[in-house]
Amino acid sequence: MRVGLYPGTFDPITLGHIDIIRRASALVDKLVIGVAINRDKGPLFSLEERVAMIEVECAHLSEQTGTEIVAHPFENLLINCARDVGAQIIVRGLRAVADFEYEFQMVGMNRVLDDSIETVFLMAEARHQAIASKLVKEIARLDGDVSKFVTPRVNAALRERLA
To answer: Whose CA, among 19, 26, 42, 80, lies 20 to 30 Å from 9?
Structure first.
């Protein structure tokens, strides 16, 4: 069974994340969405809320693709999380050239830590390349319309949290 790990904070999950999840599902039998516990980032949503959003938003993708998709919180090194879940590949989404420089360094470090785990980069579709959770939260905080960037359920959760 080919297992992939797609890590991130997902605060909140966006249409860009969902696009990468949908496309990564074609590459693996099981896709683990690694939900990072990153206290330094001060997430808007709790870990439990982020995991629940991922589970709800990805249920239909799992049915459509036949790929098992599960959310898995983690607070350790990414490479250790990959080992913990039995992943052979780490999936990373790229939006722009700026992402690549950081990701390139991460791949190099991860290869030194465990060269048996490959990293696969997926470019976000053009219409999703500008989407970043940080920007979505900022737009929502300033009462802007984020409906083009998140699902209706996530939009409602943002509105409720920021009301």
So the answer is: 26
Active-site residues: which are they? 17, 41, 95, 133
Angstrom distance (rounded) from CA 27 to CA 67? 9
Does residue 114 surpass a pLDDT of 80? yes
Structural tokens at position 33: 């969405």
| SS3 (DSSP) at 118 | strand
**101: exposed, middle or buried (Cβ count in 10 Å: 0-12, 13-18, 19+):** exposed
Question: How far does Cα 156 stand from its chain's mean position?
Answer: 19
Q: Is the pLDDT of residue 96 over 80?
A: no
Helices within 91-151 (DSSP H only): 97-113, 133-141
Q: What is the pTM of this model?
A: 0.94
